[in-house]
Amino acid sequence: MASQVDQKTEEELAKIASAEGCELLEVELKGGTLRLTLDHPDGVTLEHCESFSRQASLILDLEDTDSTSYVLEVSSPGLDRKLYGPNDYRRFRGELVRVTFRDSATGDLKTVVGTLGDFDTERAGGSVAIRERESQLTTCLPLTAVEAARLEIDI
Predict the structure, then answer these.
(1) Which of 63, 97, 118, 143 is deepest in the core (most CB within 10 A)?
(2) Phi-psi region for residue 67, left (φ > 0), alpha (ψ -120 to 50) or beta?
(3) Average pLDDT value for the chain
(4) Which residues, 6+ apart, have CB-to-CB distance to 145 below 8 Å?
């Protein structure tokens, strides 16, 4: 397999996921592991992962032209899932999140934990509001400044 899954193969994998009622969120090839992350509105089941894995293996075996070995891992995003884009920012409105972003004034990375508010599409690329847990102040961030965002598990 090449060092990266090509776009055509990724599109085929997305079609397989869609046929399972799932969405292919991420394709990551790292250190000999090809990790495919699926999502489903009602949660990803073991059956989703098994069925997708069997079908995806067939497609990936066809791409494997230079016989590089890899381990295929199919999983759900998990409880502390990453937010992958605008749909996730809308879907998880009202949930507790941890967002790391680049401060536009200083260029420094900062992290805020708070409740995910409205997603605004008026700004180019969109922006999101987060009501900070400690201060209760609302921070509005352009998505272009967000380096990482995940749901925060509140125990």
Answers:
(1) 97
(2) left
(3) 89
(4) 101, 102, 103, 104
